[in-house]
Amino acid sequence: MLRKEINDLLTQTDAGTPMGEMYRQYWIPALLAEELPENDCPPVRVKLLGERLIAFRDTDGKYGLIDEFCPHRGASLWFGRNEEHGLRCPYHGWKFDVTGQCIEVPSEPTESGFCEKIKLAGYPLVKIGDVLWTYMGAAEQQPPLPEWEFATVPAEQSFTSKRLQECNWLQAMEGGIDSSHVSWLHSGDLQRDPLFKGAAGNKYNQQDKMPVFEVTESDGGLYIGARRNAEDGKYYWRITPWVMPSFTMVPPRGDHPMHGHFWIPIDDHNCWAWSYDYHPVRALTGEERQAMQDGKGVHVKYVPGTYRPAANKDNDYLMDREAQRRGETFSGITGIGMQDASIQESMGPIVDRTKENLVSTDNGIIMARNRLRKAAMELKDKGVRPPGVDPVHQKVRSAAVILPPDKAYKDACKEDLMARPGVRQSSV
Amino acid sequence: MSSPSDCARAATAEEARYRVDYPNSKPRTSKIVAMDDRAAAITRDLETASWNGARFLSLIGRTKGVQGLDSIPLDLDLRDRSGAVARLSKELPGADVVVMIASAGESPADAGIVGRSCAARGIMTTGIIVEAGASAEEVELTLETLRPNARMLVVASDADYVAEMLTALRA
């Protein structure tokens, strides 16, 4: 149960809200690089943290993310012409560079310098890995560029996708740190999904559906350890790192690529669920990459030409009651990503947490809310930079390990939980 | 124009207004046990707040003379907020959850009695270790003691997490 005022605080991310200001401290994923594939390509509408923006790539290959609307009469620059080092509004020809600076107002004498007085809000947009990242906070507080391992390994080792999720970011993110749902909602996929099946550790998930949890704080957020019984009195641990505000990494399975998510608010009723897969030491195989493109693992199939999942609320997520009855899927929905999204969207645009009945195994969620609330208020009241901004906090990994019963995973797995270039993931 | 699907219609903010508004759970019976003196200070601060029946207890020690077998401590003496002594065995029947609060660096050996007593009765157990600047070794020490006796363990940096968690659990 969460009081309404705290639910509001955590779920509202428009400019000027405490959580909105906190999100504006981070570099966040804004677009896939494939959305701006070449210089002078068509601009793309982007909505992030409740702000309507337009992204474009200019003649020199520089990326820009600026206010969507022309300051002259308010027309959308989505109709603009992206040419000759800027984006030109087709209504009266006003032109803007990647910073949002107006560089031409054709109706005014050039000598007047009028265009220098016009500037759209603009944010940096930087390509790292498959992702274009933006920072929407104050320029003088811009942090170092992100250093997440999935985005910094060689391109052939990584695959990133995004999907529209039609609910608030927090209930989507909370699914990512709720380890106890995996043995239920996703139970069929451990045996069938090509990106999950075959791992030795899967048997422990199947044998023990009541894991014991340990939640412990990290510098950047949390570790959530799920413990199941293994052989010889040892424990099988699956350890999920959560880095503030919304990065998670699923514990690995065998030698399958590692995967995880970011949840980025579009507005208070929609978010982007970013999903990445990477292998720290080898290229993805052709089969793995094809499976990811086909929507397997944590990825989804799209409505053609969009990033909206093909299974969505308008078609009841392609509910298959027969598959549910046969036990192929637990909820009747196909695919891990849409199993999560369908359930989370069913809660409504912003779930009313005053009515929930949490239990002890929800402590990961409770602790995450606690840390988010405190960080947002410390930023608001004291200007304290929140955890997760420092690139050191971003160098994390999940792990799946077998440990003796007397070992604390946070210490025993200190190295396993760190991103280490060229070192294989710790997995069972 | 095609009509929206069941899911599309049901997931709107407008439809959320029609969710049945009623108390969807009965009050839980939560026992909060402070396992050491510093933990007792934390729970003393919480006792005066408004709770849904949470009962705050602090550990005194092993009950003497239970069934005449002093060498086999089967029960624990606890103190409630009024100062009265209560027996663990009398507190557990009907409990939904027992939350053990421990300070990092302490090794509450009697956690085993709480854990086993709860396990025997099918009662959920949660342990919160309050770190409060303790070293990793101190946390490890307390973790080792609580781990076999709690189905959920949390290492929290600040004591304020205890209140937040109890509120979240409707204690």
Structure classification of chain A:
alpha+beta
Mean pLDDT of chain B: 91
**What is the succession of H and E elements of chain B?**
HHEHEEEHEHEHEH
Please report the number of helical segments of chain A.
13
Structure summary, number of beta strands of chain B: 7
Distance between the termini of chain B: 50 Å
Provide the spatial order of strands within the biggest beta sheet of chain B.
4-3-2-1-5-6-7
Beta-strand segment tally of chain A: 19
Q: Characterize the biggest β-sheet of chain A.
A: 8 strands, antiparallel
Q: If you had to describe this structure to a student in words, what would you say it looks like?
A:
The complex is a heterodimer of chains A (428) and B (171). In chain A, 22% of the residues lie in helices and 24% in strands. Chain A is built from 13 helices and 19 strands. In chain A, strands 12, 13, 14, 15, 16, 17, 18 and 19 form an 8-stranded antiparallel β-sheet that branches. Chain A is globular, with a radius of gyration of 22 Å. In chain A, 52% of the residues are buried. The model of chain A has no long low-confidence stretch (mean pLDDT 96). The model of chain B has no long low-confidence stretch (mean pLDDT 91). Chains A and B meet through β13, α10 and α11 of A and α1, α2, β6, α6 and β7 of B.
SSE diagram, text form:
The complex is a heterodimer of chains A (about 425) and B (about 170).
Chain A: H1 4-11, H2 18-23, E1 27-32, E2 44-48, E3 51-57, E4 63-67, E5 81-82, E6 87-88, E7 95-96, E8 102-104, E9 122-123, E10 125-128, E11 131-135, H3 149-152, E12 158-165, H4 169-176, H5 182-185, H6 189-192, H7 202-207, E13 212-217, E14 221-229, E15 235-243, E16 247-250, E17 258-267, E18 270-278, H8 286-293, H9 321-326, H10 336-346, H11 363-382, H12 391-394, E19 399-403, H13 409-412
Chain B: H1 6-10, H2 13-16, E1 30-34, H3 37-47, E2 55-62, E3 76-80, E4 85-87, H4 88-91, E5 97-103, H5 111-121, E6 124-130, H6 136-146, E7 152-156, H7 160-168
Parallel strand pairs in B: 1-2, 1-5, 5-6, 6-7
Antiparallel strand pairs in B: 2-3, 3-4
